[in-house]
Backbone:
């Protein structure tokens, strides 16, 4: 495709107004595809099962996946820069462990929450520093982080610790009534808040735009004088923070801390992000896409539970196949772009 | 030739905005720049010319603060300056646009122009203000595109112009364009030139590097020619003929190598055998226009042309390293469908890339493994070369090619450039090819090794091997080749044969070519 | 090869393995201190028993999988799906044997094993296809099977833990021919691969593809076929490892069999000195790495620490090894200033004469 170039300079600011509106820009295609797929899946579910298309089923999609939404948001930051964070599932487990043992030890709830969030952020920050300053592949560093966090869980306790703190339980069971007889938990509000903040940061701040720039071309971003180091380290700190917050939400959901919580959740988060249209090579994607990706995974799970005869492992298979389809699609798009 | 200095500033009263005096830069073992003077005036387009290794890039990097100089002074608008890096140079008003567009194709045009200095409101990026500001800047260079469109959706030319818009967004007085046209077609070049003229008329000083001589004459007001790290001269474009320019770039000083007598034999006696290779209408869009070529046994065919003239591209097509999109190839009289290097190798074609490190060496493997790689690859992994045979083979080539150290177990990364090159040559010679394509085999290696390789080429040809020889040094090509194919602006423009072909004739063709026909073709 | 050259090689090999070997020795010493009888090996009914034998036996699957992983990593790849393949192999074999008419017979055992190997070869073929033909990054390409694989295994076993009672099958993981069969298989495969890659040209071609894919292609190396084959081989190694794990307990647990074994395998390769960036590989190194990991696990057991905490130690080992390997970290240790990166993509090849010399000194001083 070739853009027409006019020789005569145009009035300032008129450029955007005078041209015909382009069709859907290609960068939105993957997200829209996911959204369409989500609607189709959900629609198919509604046609097939009675009571599927209720407001509460939609609300439950959020309620059952608050932690995954938050994780996917953090993961989106990391993947947008072209990195990956394998430690998130383990950090979730560690956070539930710290929460449960902290509460057991009688710490006040706000202190526990702050401690967990700080722990997660510092954990992510350290990984980011190692990745950037020692130039070691994110894959291997976060793999070490994954081992470490998982192992630290068991250092705290090998067994599961249930959470009996009243305040925490109230937070967990608290419900917000929405019109239409639909109710959601506080966790949903937190998750949506995180999404909103992430959208703001990614699109309205210099940090966020630099995240995209680094993912597009790190060397270019550096030559453009952007603070790539801050961004490359920062995204891991953000992911660590999101993992810790996800861990808190998971603790609310499970009301226990356990070293074997959230095994493989990093894979779910990565899958959600990729299915949500974010390029694994970085530079393109949207937080909202990742949210849709999570909802997509949730819908599949809901359908499988509605189906009854289908077993839960179908979820993994379907998710894997979806992942494959999106990866191959991305590859095809990249190849076509390269041919331009 | 024209060695006279005829410096003619655009206006007698003007002060140069950039004035570099006596710049010298030395890398370990290499004098990259020696005592070079360079002046750039406001409101001019100044072409910096020179062949590979002339020092163009080094001079630009010295100007833009990437390298620090060993001696010499740079004055910017009269004040001596030293930059700690590209960012500092940019702050002082020197912006650089590189050959590869160093922007983020996944972001919008506006973002690419303003990233890092976006207008903000309450801490957040003010998208509207950004759009307006970007549109203003695009307007300033006369580019009418939607600022919120994604950069990657535009052709490279437009991306190049956006890079210029970014460069002028910081109120640059000096704009350095390092080979911005190498991947553009003629319409796109015209667009770029239009923008350059707009900027020049606004008083911006533009330093322009290109390989295309026509472009230099079309756009530049003055030029500076470098050769081997030294200043050849500063000229007004109107006063320097094309042949004068080419001879200034290539130079005529031959040093000790010229003492070697002409190596080519030019015996056209036994040409009864079919050509080793015959290419008909072979071409690849954007790389080289369709050409015909015949290569006979025992013949050295030299490819002459400036950097970017298509000489490497032609060689890669013959080897199947890149796919041709038109034409056909016959080897030994039989048609050959070149699907890739393996087909070429099987047909007896060998190719030494100019990029020794990137496309030749396997740095972490030993000399022995590097030497037998192509032969082993052809045999397949199941049929290893017997150890004894391998050792004899390697030893004999280490001996004949005088490769040092004579240790087959040394890692090839630890060898000098010349010895690495000899190992790569040996890699192909052991496969007993019929046609050997050498792309700049003597670049970046010491004089002794260079002479050895030249001699070897002549000997191999005498034994009946057909050779395609590419070199940036015209003397070398002329001395070695039986026949010379001249390339210019990605086209084969002539074929010269016979013992009387001289450097002047080739230079003339490189300089002038057939400009009329070229216009018609594009 | 001259003797001096051979000495040089041996020395080089030694220096690369010095630290892992020392760590291994240290761990063994710790064990002897805690359990004085640690080195005891006794012969009973023609079978060898002892802690060292246990380490080898328990480490056999990891060792085997690390073997396949070494070759994959040597080609600049990685295979995350081996854990899933382990689960699938066990699931296929056990389901097939359990469903056979004569579920205790040799025929059933061999059919089951054959089916498992076949399916896993297909899975490896698939991974190789994604990587070598479609050109998808190895991490991502194999991630698909990593996620899907356990689901497939569950599908095969119908979510149950399938138990079998077949002496022939049990022989693979729990049998003895003086030494446990699992050890013999792993060590045998190791020797075989070492022999095949070093006696034929395969090893060199794999390394050349891993070190410089572009140059290899231009030299006529069949990079695609080599990369493809390596993934198939890695999946086969994982399959055999999976059969060992499952036959050792005569059951297929689709959920837990081979959980995190991909990470252990990668770890073993990295500890053994094969860089994740591909190229030169060391099978001996991988062997040491795998033994080190298994000994570490055993040590944690014998010293009475909760076995789950092994993960912490593994993490520390990964971090230390990677830091030692990272060029940047080495450079920092040598207190070298890192230069401002020059605009790398900016210029055509540098002045010809300067090709060999990186102008670090010239770069603008900060």
Residues:
């Amino acid at each position: 495709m070739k853009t027409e170039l006019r020789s005569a300079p145009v009035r300032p600011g008129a450029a955007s107004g005078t041209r015909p509106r382009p069709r859907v820009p290609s960068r939105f295609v993957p997200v829209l595809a996911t959204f369409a797929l989500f609607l189709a899946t959900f629609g198919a579910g509604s046609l097939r099962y009675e009571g599927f298309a209720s407001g509460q089923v939609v609300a439950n999609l959020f309620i059952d996946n608050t932690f995954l939404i938050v994780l996917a948001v953090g993961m989106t930051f990391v993947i947008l820069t072209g990195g990956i964070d394998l430690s998130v599932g383990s950090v979730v487990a560690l956070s539930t462990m710290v929460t449960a043992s902290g509460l057991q030890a009688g710490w006040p709830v706000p202190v526990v929450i702050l401690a967990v969030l700080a722990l997660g952020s510092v954990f992510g920050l350290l990984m980011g520093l190692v990745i950037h300053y020692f130039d070691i592949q994110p894959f291997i560093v976060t793999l070490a982080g994954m081992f470490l966090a998982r192992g630290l869980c068991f250092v705290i306790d090998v067994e599961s610790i249930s959470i009996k703190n009243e305040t925490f339980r109230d937070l967990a069971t608290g419900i917000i009534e929405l019109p239409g007889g639909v109710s959601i938990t506080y966790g949903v509000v937190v998750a949506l808040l995180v999404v909103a903040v992430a959208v703001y940061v990614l699109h309205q701040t210099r940090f966020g735009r630099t995240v995209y720039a680094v993912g597009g071309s790190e060397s270019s971003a550096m030559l453009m004088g952007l603070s790539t180091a801050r961004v490359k380290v920062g995204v891991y700190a953000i992911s660590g923070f999101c993992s810790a917050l996800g861990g808190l939400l998971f603790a609310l959901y499970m009301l226990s801390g356990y070293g074997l919580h959230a095994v493989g959740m990093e894979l779910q988060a990565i899958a959600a992000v990729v299915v949500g249209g974010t390029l694994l090579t970085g530079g393109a994607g949207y937080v909202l896409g990742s949210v849709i990706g999570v909802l997509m995974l949730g819908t599949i799970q809901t359908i499988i539970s509605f189906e009854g005869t289908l077993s839960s492992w179908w979820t993994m298979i379907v998710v894997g196949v979806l992942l494959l389809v999106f990866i191959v699609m991305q590859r095809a798009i990249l190849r076509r772009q390269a041919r331009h | 030739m024209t060695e006279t200095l005829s410096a003619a500033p655009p206006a007698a009263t003007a002060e140069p905005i950039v004035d570099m005096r006596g710049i010298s830069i030395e890398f370990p073992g290499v004098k990259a720049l020696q005592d070079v003077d360079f002046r750039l005036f406001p409101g001019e387009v100044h072409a910096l010319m020179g062949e590979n290794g002339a020092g163009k890039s080094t001079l630009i990097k010295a100007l833009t603060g990437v390298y620090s100089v060993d001696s010499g002074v740079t004055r910017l608008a009269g004040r001596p300056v030293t930059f700690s890096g590209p960012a500092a140079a940019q702050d002082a008003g020197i912006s650089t646009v590189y050959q590869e567009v160093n922007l983020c194709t996944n972001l919008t045009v506006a973002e690419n122009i303003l990233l890092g200095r976006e207008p903000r409101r309450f801490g957040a990026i003010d998208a509207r203000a950004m759009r307006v500001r970007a549109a203003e800047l695009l307007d300033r260079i006369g580019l009418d595109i939607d600022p919120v469109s994604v950069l990657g959706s535009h052709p490279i030319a437009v991306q190049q112009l956006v890079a210029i818009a970014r460069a002028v967004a910081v109120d640059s007085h000096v704009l350095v364009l390092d080979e911005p046209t190498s991947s553009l077609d003629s319409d796109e070049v015209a667009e770029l030139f239009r923008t350059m003229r707009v900027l020049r008329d606004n008083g911006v000083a533009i330093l322009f590097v290109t390989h295309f001589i026509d472009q230099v004459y079309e756009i530049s007001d003055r030029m500076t020619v470098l050769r081997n790290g030294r200043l050849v001269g500063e000229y007004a474009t109107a006063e320097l003929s094309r042949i004068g320019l080419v001879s200034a770039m290539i130079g005529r000083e031959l040093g000790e190598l010229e003492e070697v007598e002409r190596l080519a034999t030019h015996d056209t006696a036994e040409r009864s055998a079919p050509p080793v290779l015959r290419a008909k209408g072979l071409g690849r869009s954007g790389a080289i226009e369709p050409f015909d070529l015949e290569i006979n046994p025992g013949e050295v065919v030299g490819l002459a042309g400036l950097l970017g003239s298509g000489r490497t591209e032609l060689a890669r097509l013959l080897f199947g390293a890149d796919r041709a999109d038109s034409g056909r190839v016959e080897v030994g009289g039989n048609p050959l469908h070149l699907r890739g290097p393996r087909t070429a190798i099987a047909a007896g074609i060998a190719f030494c890339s100019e990029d020794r490190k990137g496309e030749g060496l396997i740095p972490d493997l030993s000399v022995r493994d590097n030497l037998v790689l192509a032969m082993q690859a052809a045999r397949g992994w199941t049929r290893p070369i017997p150890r004894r045979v391998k050792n004899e083979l390697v030893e004999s080539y280490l001996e004949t090619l005088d490769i040092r150290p004579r240790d087959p177990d040394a890692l090839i990364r630890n060898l000098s450039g010349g010895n690495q090159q000899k190992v790569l040559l040996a890699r192909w010679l052991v496969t007993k090819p019929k046609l050997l394509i050498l792309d700049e085999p003597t670049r970046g290696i010491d004089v002794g090794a260079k002479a050895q390789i030249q001699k070897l080429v002549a000997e191999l040809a005498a034994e009946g091997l057909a050779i395609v020889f590419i070199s940036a040094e015209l003397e070398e090509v002329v001395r070695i080749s039986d026949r010379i194919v001249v390339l210019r602006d990605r086209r084969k423009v002539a074929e010269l044969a016979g013992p009387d072909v001289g450097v002047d004739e080739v230079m003339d063709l490189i300089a002038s070519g057939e400009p009329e026909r070229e216009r018609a073709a594009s | 090869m001259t003797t001096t050259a051979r000495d040089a090689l041996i020395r080089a090999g030694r220096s690369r393995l010095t630290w892992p070997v020392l760590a291994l020795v240290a761990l063994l010493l710790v064990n002897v201190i805690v359990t004085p009888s640690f080195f005891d090996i006794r012969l009973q009914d023609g079978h060898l028993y002892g802690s060292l034998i246990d380490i080898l036996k328990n480490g056999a699957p990891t060792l085997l999988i690390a073997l396949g992983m070494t070759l994959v990593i040597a080609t600049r790849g990685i295979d995350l799906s081996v854990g899933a393949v382990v689960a699938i192999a066990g699931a296929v074999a056990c389901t097939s044997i359990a469903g056979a008419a004569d579920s205790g017979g040799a025929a059933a055992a061999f059919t089951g094993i054959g089916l498992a190997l076949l399916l896993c070869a297909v899975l490896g073929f698939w991974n190789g296809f994604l990587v070598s033909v479609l050109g998808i990054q190895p991490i991502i390409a194999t991630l698909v099977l990593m996620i899907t694989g356990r689901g497939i295994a569950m599908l095969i076993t119908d979510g149950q833990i399938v138990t079998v009672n077949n002496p022939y099958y049990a022989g693979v993981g729990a049998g003895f021919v003086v030494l446990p069969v699992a050890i013999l298989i792993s060590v045998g495969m190791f020797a075989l691969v070492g022999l095949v890659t070093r006696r034929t040209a395969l090893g060199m071609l794999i390394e050349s593809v891993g070190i410089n894919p572009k140059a290899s292609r231009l030299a006529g190396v069949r990079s695609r076929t080599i990369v493809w084959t390596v993934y198939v081989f890695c999946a086969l190694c994982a399959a055999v490892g999976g059969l060992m794990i499952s036959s050792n307990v005569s059951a297929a647990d689709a959920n837990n069999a081979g959980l995190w074994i991909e990470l252990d395998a990668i770890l073993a390769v990295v500890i053994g000195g094969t860089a994740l960036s591909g190229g030169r590989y060391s099978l001996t190194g991988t062997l040491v790495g795998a033994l080190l990991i298994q000994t570490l696990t055993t040590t944690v057991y014998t010293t009475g620490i909760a076995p789950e905490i092994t993960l912490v130690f593994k993490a520390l080992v990964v971090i230390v090894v990677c830091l030692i390997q990272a060029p940047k970290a080495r450079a920092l240790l040598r207190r070298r200033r890192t230069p401002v990166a020059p605009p790398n993509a900016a210029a055509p090849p540098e002045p010809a004469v300067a090709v060999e010399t990186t102008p670090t000194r010239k770069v603008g001083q900060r």
About this structure: Chain B has a mean pLDDT of 83. The first strand of chain B starts at residue 18 and ends at 27. Residues 137 and 441 of chain B are 46 Å apart (CA to CA). Chain B touches chain A through 41 residues (CB under 8 Å).
